[in-house]
Amino acid sequence: MEFSEKLKRIYIYYRPIFLVLPAFIIFLIFFVIPVIGLFVLAFDKPVAGVIDIQGQWTLKSFIRIYSRSLYFDAAVMSVSLAAIVSFITLIIGYPLAYLIAKTEHVGRNTFLMILVLSAMQLDMVIRLFGLMVLFGDNGVINGALLYYNIIEKPIGLMYNKLGVVVGLVQFSLPFMILSLVGIIRGIPPAVVEASRSLGATPVKAFWNIILPLSMPGILAGTLLVFALSISSYIVPALMGGWKVMMMPLHIYQQIAEMGKWQFGSAIAVVLFCTSMITVLVYQRIAIRFAGGRA
Amino acid sequence: MFQKIIKKRPKLREVNDVGPLIKFGAVIALCVLLIPVFIVVLTGLNAGDHLTFPPEGLSTRWIIAFFKSEVFLSAFLFSFGLALITMVISTILGTMAAIFITRFSFPGMNFLRALFLSPLILPGIVLGLALYVFYITSGSGLARTFPGMVIGHVLVTLPYVIGTVSAALFNFDVNLEQAARSLGASPLQAFRKVTLPNISNGVMAGSIFAFIVSFGQFDVSLFMATPGNTPLPIALYWSLRYTFEPTAAAAGIFAILLVVTSMLITAKLVNLKKFSGVKFS
Q: DSSP letter string over B3-45?
């Protein structure tokens, strides 16, 4: 009697766990285990065409990434292109984020947010279609320049690094804007008002007050954009035309075209770690600034 | 003299006013965001074989071609079905998990929250590859199947549902539910009759996000797509590698309509002012 009573109490206490159990089990089986499996595969002996775990642990794949300039350069280029994209996205995104943050009118604010969110949620391949029609050799921009005799033959705007950067900026701009809006809105107007009443010009107030106070959003946004850019497959594949080999392209090529499962997994692990480190730094910054404010 | 200083002091409104430079910059950002979308619409409604400068005029021939197209129409419908199934599963699982996360305190809650959000930060292609390798090596027979793809899509959409529903639950006064309980309602009754109607907007917004994210998902589908199971983004990608088919742009127009409608509904359901996109912490 007493025992069953005790069991019942334990059951009632732990009953809520059933709410989270289905999602947790799916995550455990189809997320945690596969990601661990990918790490395991990356440290296995690389044999083309073999996907099963052989249990012969080695660092060969990672040494290959480091020693072959093809892959090492891809890693360096991915990082540098992502850094450039972060910077450009910040410059382009800040004014719109500022405008959204300062728009008090509910309808106008919602309208701008819908524009940004729609652009963000729209399938990237469709947005790239638009960009490719614009930037291609027979595209709208080259067509217009030729039509007005500004150039004599099409200039290469796509299938090079320029194209990839343009594509990545278009891809990541909404994320930058959303990271900035909340922070800029949080800047108390009184601080700005105080600086202005003490004689600061609008430009000075912006430079000395608003910009430093938006720093958390700027850091968070650039890190987020960096992590997104470095792991994009579709943008370098289409805008770079497989000529700008960023890391995700190498992963696909090794796996789908060459059957080098271990080596492809090793590149995926390097990509995973790079973007994880970025995001951890991002979280640290976000938490520190949120904590400092509270 | 005091008069002069007071006159020079800008009013709060002025401080909040944005200058012409900011407005100019904002217009540029909007152009970067929207011109590619606009071009897709223009290409899909274009009369010529491809979009040229200057355009040749408007027609519905590519829209009609889209409805007759084996490749794009079936891919569109496939994506639609996939997104619907993903949405249903994600909404149910995500809402349950969000209730657990916001209402109860068990050890390891922070870990759980981080786990459920982690598909957002994991590069999509890494997740897709990890799943694909797992499907093959585990001998589960899920590789290149529809259920296998649904699982991948559920993983990437759950964070959005959990995020929006948790936000709705935070704003909901728990006392209301407790009042219902003290008046004799069972936990399930209290949830269904009191809590659910109050958080339904958040749940709906979350499910819309799940639908749209699944509909536009590329990375996770990349390794799993087969000729029979081709979502729209993958079909568009394969065609874009070789040509610019205006039929693809026509398919894009319908995808654009779907996304814009979804966002309009979301704006009615939840306050977009409080929405800050992808939340990492």
A: HHHHHHSPPHHHHHSPPHHHHHHHHHHHHHHHHHHHHHHHHHT
